[in-house]
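In the previous chapter we treated chains in isolation. Here, by contrast, the input contains two separate entities that must be folded as one system, with a combined length of 837 residues.
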Amino acid sequence: MNSRTRRLLKRAQKADTNAASELLRLHYADVYSYLRRLCGSQPDADDLTQQTFLKVWSSLDHFKGRSKFSTWLHRIAYNCYIDWQRRNAGSALNLPDQWWLQCVDDNPGPFSNLAERHLARQLYEAVDQLDEDKKQTVHLHYYQGLSLRETAKVLGVATSTVKYRLREVFKTLRVKLGFRETRSQQQRISIAEGESL
Amino acid sequence: MNMQKKIEQYLRAAPKPPVSDGLLERLQADISLGAVKTHRSSLRRWLAPAGRSVSPWRVAAAVAIAVAVLLPLGYGATKLIRRFAAISQLPTITVDFPESGALSPDGRHFAGITWNTELVVIDTSTGEQRNLGGNSFGGVVWSADGREIAVEKRGGDEEQRGVVAVSLETGETRRLLRDPHFFEDWSQDGKLILSVQRTAGTVYSVILSNLDSTERTVLAEDTGCWPSPRFSPRGDRVSYVTEEAGHSVLHLQEVDGTSHTKYSDFPGAITQPIWSPDGSHIVFTGAQRGINVQFKDLWAVQVQGNQFAGVPIPVVPNVEQIACYNWSRNGQLVYRIGFRLGGIFTMPVDPRTGQATGSPRQLVRRSNLNSFCWSPDGGQVATTQGGEMIFISASSGETIRGLSLSGIKNIGRGMSWSPDGREIAFCGIDNAKRAGVFLIAVESGDVRLLVPLEGAIANYDPTWSPDSKAIAYARKNNVYVVNVEDGTPRRITAPPEERDPNVYVTRPVFSPDGRSVAYIAGQRTRGNRMERILMTTIDGQGTKEIFRKEGRETPINIFDLSPDGRHMVYTRGNKRILCAPTDGGKAFRIGSISDVGKDAWAWMPKWSPRGDAIAFAVTCEEYQYWVMENFLPAAKAAAQ
């Protein structure tokens, strides 16, 4: 947690609206993206983001700084999503749209050619079809950029579990995407500085 | 690129879904800082769950839980903690108990004998003090029920003398034993007493007295050292120490004489053996001599039945400054720590006027300093330390060199460096138990006994004549001069039978011209004390008074003459250093050590041979009283 976030948090905990607004501005897009990718619907993502931040404001005084603020925020967002998922289990609303279609088309990014864009779409689709646990792990660690330890904290599991899930994810993705690898190519997945799977 | 890395790259580069229009505004509108609650303590939340006033029912429930659950838990925790080694101070004890003291069986009172022989009892929790009478000596032993304290009374009425039991409640005494010698211990059943009898010099015997039958049994004779006899907690066995062929021997003996076991392999000196309250161990202080250093640690040896089990093991290292008192039945070993701040101090003076020209400065920090002397050129100070004669630079305080005194067992008061610089005279007792005035050669370190004398405490204050041919010393109320060549002493003071028996003579100093010896001649009367410095010619024919002082306290504790003999420096056993002209002029203060410590006192002033400085010793020990619990390895193992 950087010093700016810490200062804003302290002020927000003393009921400083401006500080809370600044915190919101810094983090709402991340939370929205996370929820939008998970729930598959823009209106639902809007609602869940609102719920998330309502919970944030109501429980801000309980945040003791024992983890990063972003980790705590993702944990609340994750819980909101799980609640939402339980409420809508089995309904038609649970069918996600393919968020990546619009995004990849609108934001070429590194996918400079059509083949790569196609591959990326295949990859995101494959991720979306993963088990819920594995999907959450990929979303938090890769899409949201949390470290292994932060991902584990949000999901309430051990760091080793996160590593195990990611290894399983890669096995699945390689199969689904039709990649063939030699044994020598199976190398450690570089996750973040100082961490390894 | 490795496909796995490529997958990772794709995943990390996943684009962010665009945020809906107006979402930020909606979220900002939702910010309700009224929802940011003020933090309330868990206790407050529990006592007032609705956020209003505290519920009396919940308060009552909390009290009930505390009584029903927390207190028993706390009691259990306390018991658990008590199983681990613990050291704690007894801050309520603020009186000095130099020799003996004891914690009551329940640990609530501490009884000890003060410097002025008063038996004082202190409540260890409140610090309240009670004086239970003077003329008290020897050991302090509580009765098993903690209602009486046994001490030895030497003064007062004839009927009050002996070992008496003093009532803690009323202060009344009842005599246990008429002739105790040196009282040491009282058995827990109240029927037996252990004492030490000194027959001559360092010849001690351990005496067991039966209070019912008045039978006396000698358990050990000629112990060679102070035997410190102690009863086991059940009173069926006795431990004591002897010295045999230079080795400390710890004895374990049945009181009925049926069994006697010795432990003689300890590589040092055993002192102060104390029984643990359960009788499973004997703890003692063991001193071992290293190279120029003496180590003193607390050791424990296990006792099984009437045998020692195994060998002693060190349980607390480095207890040099610890004096153990007793091990109370509540498991607390009470001891005293002495912070020794004294040493040798020097102060520059004007040789003509005797006035100080500077403040006192500490040359060396030392404890138990009983002797030192200037070198003839005033450049060094010699003193004793750890079985050596050491030579210290008078300017820097650095130790220059040392000479072994391995053949000397005890060193007494007084030391003097011959004016020709060749020998130093000191008094003491050697390993062959010969007491007297000894000479050590400054160059070779050879030690010889000049004058053999009898005595347990060799405080003869030897002093060299200016021509290095004679030594004057004091013994048994007389001053003697001995010629170094033939070693024959000659008394110069009048025979005791011709003098007032109340007059005592001590601490001789040769006059600068070598024709006379000055010494203290004191007279103690009720409530007053008068001391004179007399000067007697070495042929004993003429005596004159050069100084006189009176007072309720000690008027002159110890003195020295200036090299020209025109002044004398003396101390009174307090913080002041005083000077007086020897022609009858008025005494004046030349220095004070008021900033050394509250109980510091200066003594043994020695005028430097050049006359430009005075060295003096400072004794300063500040005491603290502590208790140790559960420090034996067996206790620790049981706790684990």
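The longest helix of chain A spans residues 17-39. Chain A touches chain B through 56 residues (CB under 8 Å). Compare these points with the single-chain example from earlier in the chapter.
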